[in-house]
């Protein structure tokens, strides 16, 4: 795991990731903000990860069981690997319930990514 992904994951585990980055057009990103946001965008740059993220985000109730989202054209171990990368980047939270793991998006992260890409 990269240093930046580890920092984001620790923040997520401590109660939510809330990177606060101004829109790109408002000024230059700090080194810290650039590292944080790059880790998130890097995690989403893989088509399978983006599909998994989309499946979780659009699932009714805002969370999805891994059993409901694993049909993305790769094996189950590969799905687990990609979901782990999304968790490490702070984009998803997970909770084990019995034998299944449920995922939900990290709303503060989506808001931060949206703010970064929004023009004033």
Question: In words, what does this structure look like?
Answer:
With 120 residues, the chain is α+β, with helices and mostly antiparallel strands. It is built from 6 helices and 3 strands; from the N terminus they run αααβααββα. The protein has helices at residues 3-13, 31-44, 47-58, 66-69, 76-88, 107-117, and strands spanning 63-65, 92-97, 100-105. The chain has a 3-stranded antiparallel sheet. Strand 2 (92-97) and strand 3 form a beta hairpin. Helix 1 crosses helix 2 (31-44). The radius of gyration is 14 Å and the shape is elongated. The model is unreliable at 1-19 (pLDDT under 50).
What secondary-structure arrangement, pairings included, does this model have?
Layout: H1 3-13, H2 31-44, H3 47-58, E1 63-65, H4 66-69, H5 76-88, E2 92-97, E3 100-105, H6 107-117
Antiparallel strand pairs: 1-3, 2-3
Helix pairs in contact: 1-2, 3-5
Concise overview:
54% of the residues lie in helices and 12% in strands.
Describe the structure using short key phrases.
three-stranded antiparallel beta sheet, disordered N terminus, alpha+beta, 6 helices, 120 residues, 12% strand
Kindly report how far apart the N and C termini lie. 34 Å
Structural class: alpha+beta
- The shape, in one word, is elongated
Q: Largest beta sheet: what is the strand line-up? A: 1-3-2
Q: How is the main sheet built? A: 3 strands, antiparallel
Average pLDDT metric: 81
Q: Compute the number of strand runs.
A: 3
The value of Rg in angstroms is 14 Å
Uncertain spans, ≥5 residues at pLDDT below 50?
A: 1-19
Question: β content, as a range?
Answer: 5-15%
> How many helices does DSSP assign?
6
Determine the fraction of residues in helical runs and give it as a percent range.
40-55%
Order of helices and strands: HHHEHHEEH
């Amino acid at each position: 795991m990269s240093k930046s992904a580890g920092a984001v994951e620790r923040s997520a585990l401590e109660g939510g990731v809330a990177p606060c980055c101004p829109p790109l057009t408002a000024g230059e990103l700090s080194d810290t903000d650039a590292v944080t946001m790059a880790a998130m965008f890097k995690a989403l740059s893989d088509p399978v990860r983006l599909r998994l993220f989309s499946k979780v985000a659009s699932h009714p109730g805002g969370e999805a069981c891994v059993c409901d989202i694993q049909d993305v054209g790769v094996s189950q171990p590969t799905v687990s690997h990609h979901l782990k990368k999304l968790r490490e980047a702070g984009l998803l939270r997970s909770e084990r319930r019995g034998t299944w793991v449920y995922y939900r998006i990290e709303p503060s992260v989506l808001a931060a990514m949206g703010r970064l890409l929004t023009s004033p």
